[in-house]
Write a sequence for this structure.
C-alpha cells in the first residue's frame, strides 16, 4: 500500500503530477473534439435535411461509412492516410514548404471529432425533426430572419430533444479519447498509464488507476448532464 | 489499373484470412455477453441488495471506463499477477499466455454490462398486466420469467441488442493492441512489412464495411422473424 502511495508522489519521483495533468489533457482532447464534432454534426444534419440531393448524398455517405468502420481504424486512416495525403497535396501545390506537417495534436483531435461527428449527425437530425413545424412557421410569420429562427426557436427546442443523445456522445468521446493513445504521446490518461505501467512494471495498479480516472470523468459528466437536463427542461410540465 | 488499387487488392487475401478471427471474437463475446448480461440484469432488478448492488456497480464501472483501458487492465494487469501465482504452473497457463483468452474475457464482460443495461430497461418496461395475467393463471415465478418476462423483454430490445453487436464487432479492432492479429492487427502487420501506409488501412476499411453490412442484413430479417407476433 505504501509502495503504491510512493508511486503517486508529486514531482519527478512519482506519477501523481503526470496523472493529474493527464486527467485534464483527456478532458481537453475530449472537449475540443466534442465541440468540433457538434459543429460537424450540425452541418451534416442540415445537409441531410436539405432539399439538395447532392448534399444529402454527401451526408449519407459520411454517416454510413464512418458508422460502419471501427473507431480505431477510422482514426488511423484519418491520422496517417488522410492527413499524410493532404500534406503531400499541399506541398505539391506549393501552398506550404516541403517540411510542412500538420500538428499531431490537432490531427488526432480532428480525427476523433470526425468519427464522433457521424453519430452526432444522427442525434442532431433526430432532434431537428422533433421540433414542431408550427413554431418555425410562426417565427417566419412574425418576420424573424433565418439565423434568428435557428438560434431562438429551433436550437433551444432541438437541444431539449437531443440532450440525452448528446450526453451519451460526450460520455462516448471521453472514452474514445483513449484510442488517441495509440497514435502517439499526447500525455492523455491512457498514454500516461501505459508509460507508468511500463516503467514500474505495476500494470495492474496503473491501469486500474487509469480506469478510475476515466470513471471520475464519467461521474462528473453525469452530474453535469443531470443539471443541464433540468435547466433545458425548465418551463416544461 | 493503377498501382494504388493493385496494392489494395494485394492486401485483401491476408485480410480475408484474418476475418474469421474478428468474427470469432464477436460471436463468442456476443453470446457470452448476452448470457451474462441477462443474469446481470436479473440480479440488478432482483431487489436483493446483495445481488443488485454488485451488479449495478459492475455495470457502472464497465460502462464508465474505456474498453481499451479494460483490455490493457486485463491483459497486462491479470497477466502480471497470474504470472507469479499458481496459474503459472497449472494446465491453464498455455491458454492464459495467449492474448485471445484475455481479450475474450474483456469483451465478454464489456458486452455483458452493456447488454444488461439494455435488458434492464426492457424488463422494467413490460406492462404489469402481463405479469399479473401470468400470475392469475397460476404460473410459478420461474415460469413467468422464462415464458413471459424474458421473451417480451428480448423482443422489445432486439434492435438495440443488434446494434450493440455491431458496436462489439467494430470494437474488436482494439484487440489488435494486445497482440491479436484479427483484421485490424493484420492490416497493421501488412503496413509494417510492405511499408505502405495507406493501402492496408483502406483495404481493411473495405473488409470491415462489407462485414458490417453483411451482419446488419443478416440481423434485420432475424429481428423481423423474432418479433413477428407484434403488429404495426
Amino acid at each position: 500500500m505504501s509502495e503504491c502511495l510512493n508511486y503517486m508522489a508529486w514531482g519527478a519521483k512519482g506519477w501523481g503530477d503526470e496523472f493529474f495533468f493527464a486527467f485534464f489533457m483527456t478532458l481537453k482532447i475530449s472537449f475540443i473534439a466534442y465541440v468540433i464534432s457538434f459543429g460537424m454534426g450540425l452541418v451534416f444534419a442540415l445537409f441531410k435535411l436539405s432539399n439538395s440531393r447532392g448534399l444529402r448524398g454527401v451526408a449519407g455517405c459520411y454517416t454510413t461509412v464512418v458508422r460502419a468502420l471501427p473507431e480505431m481504424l477510422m482514426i488511423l486512416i484519418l491520422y496517417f492516410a488522410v492527413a499524410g495525403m493532404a500534406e503531400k497535396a499541399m506541398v505539391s501545390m506549393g501552398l506550404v514548404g516541403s517540411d510542412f506537417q500538420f500538428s499531431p495534436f490537432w490531427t488526432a483531435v480532428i480525427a476523433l471529432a470526425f468519427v464522433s461527428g457521424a453519430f452526432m449527425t444522427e442525434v442532431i437530425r433526430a432532434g431537428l425533426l422533433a421540433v414542431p413545424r408550427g413554431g418555425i412557421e410562426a417565427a417566419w410569420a412574425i418576420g424573424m430572419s433565418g439565423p434568428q429562427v435557428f438560434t431562438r426557436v429551433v436550437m433551444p427546442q432541438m437541444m431539449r430533444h437531443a440532450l440525452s443523445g448528446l450526453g451519451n456522445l460526450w460520455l462516448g468521446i471521453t472514452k474514445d479519447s483513449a484510442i488517441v493513445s495509440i497514435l502517439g504521446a499526447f500525455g492523455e490518461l491512457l498514454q500516461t498509464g501505459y508509460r507508468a505501467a511500463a516503467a514500474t512494471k505495476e500494470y495492474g495498479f496503473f491501469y486500474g488507476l487509469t480506469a478510475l480516472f476515466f470513471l471520475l470523468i464519467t461521474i462528473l459528466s453525469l452530474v453535469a448532464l443531470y443539471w443541464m437536463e433540468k435547466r433545458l427542461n425548465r418551463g416544461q410540465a | 489499373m493503377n498501382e494504388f488499387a493493385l496494392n489494395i487488392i494485394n492486401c485483401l487475401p491476408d485480410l480475408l484470412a484474418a476475418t474469421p478471427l474478428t468474427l470469432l471474437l464477436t460471436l463468442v463475446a456476443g453470446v457470452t455477453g448476452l448470457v451474462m448480461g441477462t443474469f446481470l440484469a436479473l440480479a440488478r432488478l432482483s431487489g436483493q441488495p446483495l445481488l443488485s448492488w454488485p451488479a449495478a456497480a459492475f455495470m457502472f464501472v464497465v460502462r464508465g471506463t474505456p474498453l481499451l483501458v479494460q483490455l490493457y487492465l486485463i491483459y497486462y494487469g491479470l497477466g502480471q499477477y497470474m504470472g507469479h501465482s499458481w496459474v503459472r504452473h497449472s494446465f491453464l497457463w498455455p491458454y492464459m499466455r495467449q492474448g485471445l483468452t484475455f481479450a475474450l474475457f474483456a469483451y465478454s464482460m464489456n458486452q455483458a454490462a452493456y447488454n444488461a443495461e439494455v435488458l434492464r430497461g426492457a424488463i422494467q418496461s413490460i406492462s404489469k398486466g402481463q405479469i399479473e395475467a401470468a400470475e392469475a393463471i397460476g404460473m410459478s415465478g420461474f415460469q413467468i420469467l422464462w415464458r413471459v418476462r424474458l421473451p417480451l423483454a428480448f423482443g422489445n430490445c432486439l434492435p438495440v441488442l443488434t446494434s450493440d453487436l455491431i458496436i462489439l464487432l467494430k470494437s474488436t479492432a482494439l484487440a489488435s493492441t494486445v497482440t491479436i492479429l484479427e483484421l485490424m492487427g493484420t492490416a497493421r502487420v501488412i503496413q509494417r512489412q510492405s511499408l505502405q501506409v495507406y493501402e492496408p488501412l483502406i483495404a481493411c476499411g473495405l473488409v470491415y464495411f462489407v462485414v458490417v453490412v453483411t451482419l446488419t442484413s443478416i440481423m434485420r430479417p432475424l429481428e423481423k422473424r423474432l418479433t413477428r407476433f407484434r403488429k404495426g
